[in-house]
Amino acid sequence: MGDKIGMGELNIELNDARNAFAPGEQVEGRIEWSLDANPDALTLSLLWYTSGKGTRDIGVLYANRIDSPGALGSDKFSFTLPPGPYSFSGKLISLIWALELTCTPGSDTVRKEIVVSPIGREILLTSVAGQGEGKDNQPGPFLKRILGVPYAGA
Amino acid sequence: MGTVDCHGTGDGVSKPASILGRLGLSLFFLFFFAMGSLFEVLILRESGRALGQRSWRKTPCTIVTSEVQERGDGESPYAFIISYRYSYGGKTHSGSVYKRGYSASSTYSAAQDLVQRYPVGQATVCYVSPANADEAVLKRDSILIGLVALFPLIFIAVGAGGIYFLWRKPLPAQARPIAPIAVGAKGKSRYAPAVFFAVFAIAGGAMLYPLGIRPIAQTLDAESWASTPCKVLRAEVRSQDSDDGTTYSVYILYQYEFGGRTYKADRYDFVGGSSSGYEGKARVVARYQSAVKPICYVNPKNPSQAVLKRGFHAKLLLALLPLPFLLVGVGGLVYTVRGKGREASRLAVLTERVPDRRVDSLSVLRAGDAGPAVLRPRFSAPGKLVGAVVIAVFWNGIISIFVSGAGSFEKIFLLPFIAIGVGLIGLVIYQFLALFNPRPALELSPAVIPVGGTAALRWSFAGQVSRITELAVTLRGIEEAKYRKGTSTCTDKNTFCEMELYRTSNLAEIASGQVGLVLPGDTMHSFKADNNKIIWSIEIRGDIKRWPDVKESFEIEVMPADGRQNRHG
Predict the structure, then answer these.
(1) What is the CATH number of the domain that holds A116?
(2) CB contact under 8 A, A133 and B356
(3) CA-CA 20 to 30 A from A146: which of A42, B110, B122, B381?
(4) Res A125: pLDDT
(5) Beta strands in B201-309 (DSSP E)
(6) What is residue B133's three-state secondary structure?
(7) Model confidence over A36-80: pLDDT tens digits?
(8) Model ipTM value
């Protein structure tokens, strides 16, 4: 079930309460809205966005707009997922897939996060031990020899 | 804007400022808003007056007097004095205003041009105020001043927008819609750079005629002008004060006879303008002050036009100044509008109002992706050298300015900066020596590897491969996150996969070899957005004794497993 946001209620429900999908699979479900006033439109988007250290990137795959939906109603939806990008979580970046239902005008919105991955869960990217940030800036063997730093390969 | 490696929080989310900070920023934005509004009112008032003149009656008139008068040594010593007669409402009136706000010209040529445009006895038209028939002008105000009104709007928008965004109550992160941001951002990412480059192109184009085309065309034309002896009436170095300091220009007023008439002119060359450096201009002025009968060059088609210095000279190189602006502007405009190299736009395809249509947001399998491909290094050896030279010259150039102006005590504080400069020179030497290293050539088959897939990598070296004592071939996957911190753009990297594919000390195996690689099935494919990237690469490291090592990185493309299967299925 979605959350109650702003002046009304917006819901996104996925069939069989699934939240993990393989790339290329169908995402099917139902949206419901119960608002205090008649909105101009409702937009259901399938999107991914990044979270973490980098400035956010967003990709919107579909944006289905329902004009003059009335204050109360429901509708079915079905999307085919693309081959990627996969949902993943690293030390610096996470990529999150979501369905988002937005009401216009206003900023009422509800978001349902899903996982898009061939292994049924988000891909975890861990840091290589001792090979993390700034590795590229460390002196190579040549400089290490000049600077007198012991080098295993020497 | 430089890219630096630094650390901080990203996600495009900024911390809210404290109340005191917001008050301070509000004052700052209020000042912007007030100044913008003030200028807007002044410009709109002027625009209103210019627009009002459009309703003045176009009336035939006759020029009675037209001459240039000298008025002392002020900044505009040459006044265009005009009087004209016109009939309006059955009565005869006389006018003496050329244009509202005009009092005098800074050069004789400018005033002389007006005399030529309105010679005595010429029948022309003037514009008479319907409210007061005694009020008339020969030239109406330009309504283009209305365009200037757009400029203060930027200040008003920054001021008002700044105050609004400072004090508006932000929505909780979960309640903020993301998709509309993407729609707006995609528009911005496509058009904002285009607008930026368009400004460059327009500025370059606007400067090209007065600074480039006109002086060169006049210089070419003046080759046929008549050499004529002239008399110097006034010669001086004029100074102009600005925020960037004082600039100087040569000013020489001279008189000559042509076709039985006497003319005056003050054009020294066709470039004009002022620049720093007093001595050279003073020498020119002194030369003309002492010259008995200097030569000027007179346009036989229009004898009031003359110049003292003709032919090509170094100052004409200023004509090239607008070209970089124009080239950067036009090139950038073409690049951004075509969207070349914008991988992110390929990844984020917007399909608003297209219900339930499959969109392949990832790279499309190209012909040849399934076959072998020759890999290119991310940075070539000459490229690395050029980069090192540019950084070293830039850094040491700036530091040298500070060092030359610093006392011995201040130089102590500059020592760390000088040390970095010396280090950068060392880097240049290092990269120069690395130019003579053996060069690796890599071939990957298939060119694009699916997650969980296999590939064959072949390598060979050109050059003195016997210098390499040990070779290591490594597969590396990194996360790369770019974010803003203050005015800098920072990039953080994290290696999430490092797999040594091959290591050998055998000379024959170093010279050429082959290795198979298997990508894990639970890893991430290549991903490139504007700010966040997953990059896969093959790294070649060859140790050379007493010499910079061979270090090359070759980016490879890893694609989603499903994408490949779907396409083949």
Answers:
(1) 2.60.40.640
(2) no
(3) B381
(4) 93
(5) 226-242, 245-258, 261-265, 295-298, 306-307
(6) coil
(7) 888 899 999 999 999 999 999 999 988 889 998 888 999 999 999
(8) 0.81
